[in-house]
Amino acid sequence: MIRQRLAERIYPTQPLITTQRIIDTLFPVARGGTACIPGPFGSGKTVLQSLVARHSSVDIVVIIACGERAGEVVETITEYPETMDPRTGDSLMKRTIIVCNTSSMPVAARESSIYTGITMGEYYRQMGYNVLCIADSTSRWAQAMRETSGRMEEIPGEEAFPAYLDSSIKNLYERAGLIKGPDGQVGSVTLIGTVSPAGGNFDEPVTQATLATVKTFLGLSDERAYKRFYPAIDPLTSWSRYLDQMRAWYSENLSATWVEDVKAAHDLLHRGDAIYQMMQVTGEEGITMDDFLTWQKSVFLDMVFLQQDAYDPVDTSMPLERQKSSFELVKEIIETEYAIDDRDEARDFFTRLISLYKNLNYSPDDSAEYVRYLREIRELVDSKRVKLAEAGEEGPG
């Protein structure tokens, strides 16, 4: 007797396009992969997950409100039917499932809500759909397990969480994946869990167990949120293991050097932060002019590419094609050698450049404003670009 294989798990090789630049470019999530968004209160988790749910390249979105405040759940239920789906032009609610479970509901219901939502996602995945499950938040789900475990008088683990917390979190995220069914259809469940560590402490057990499981970590920073840098994803602590995994897809669809270019941009952010920390001790005069320009370039990259206005009709969502052209322009600007010898001149140059580029981000594709700002950016860059003769690269003769 030949046993028919019911499903085959496939290795994820394509990204989930969220249209959020910092995610799609620096810290991608694979379609059928896993990610977590930990962050303190007020760091923008709810707005970010709403943007991801609205603009991601999936067929169905399952939002699991696990132990959420009733006001947030009511707001979600009220807003989604009135929000236009950018993919279909219809109501966003028509492809969204919301599992409602407020903090006033029983602990057992809070624990089961996560499993209810992921089971729904698996059901549609078997039908060949691409599903995005957003669990908000897994911290309250773990707290429900802790309370249930305590009532059952089980042996507690760290911070009174059950000893099986780590395995429970791993079992949950392992249910995500890319599946090929017996009929040949391929479906996926991408699971993104938000974590609410008390006081923004990423060393607590739920966050640590989640980090050991997921392959993309989008850590929200209270400091960046305070500066109004949104999305408040900290580029210095966040990471993605999918960048190298999806190298072949990037090479075929974007550019052959895409992964290396992204890593170089990430390295620039780290170098810029190291220079900034040195400036806090020595002042601007304590660093070289080259280091000062490197820091200005890292600030430019952060301000114009990593930040995105969720309430601007154009900048709220950037398709991958425009992300590619924008990143290539940013790469050209930060790799250019500038004939600037004065710190005040450098500061004025990059301030003007940031202002022009933000206006470019707010301009629709191929509009008159887009063309004008793009021209002004190139003219400003060319005005300070080091000429060959200045660099000592004179021709023969």
Q: What is the CATH architecture assignment of the largest domain?
A: 3-Layer(aba) Sandwich
Sequence stretches where pLDDT stays below 50 over 5 or more residues: none
| Structural domain tally | 2
Specify the CATH class of the largest domain.
Alpha Beta
Output the structural class.
alpha/beta
Summed up, the helix count is 15
Helix content: 40-55%
- Basic shape: globular
Average of pLDDT: 91
Radius of gyration: 23 Å
Succession of helices and strands: EHEHEHEHEHHEEHEHEHHHHHHH
Give the strand tally.
9
Strand residues, percent: 5-15%
The biggest beta sheet is recorded as: 7 strands, mixed
Q: Ends: how far apart?
A: 84 Å
CATH level-four homologous superfamily name of the largest domain: P-loop containing nucleotide triphosphate hydrolases
- CATH level 3 topology of the largest domain: Rossmann fold
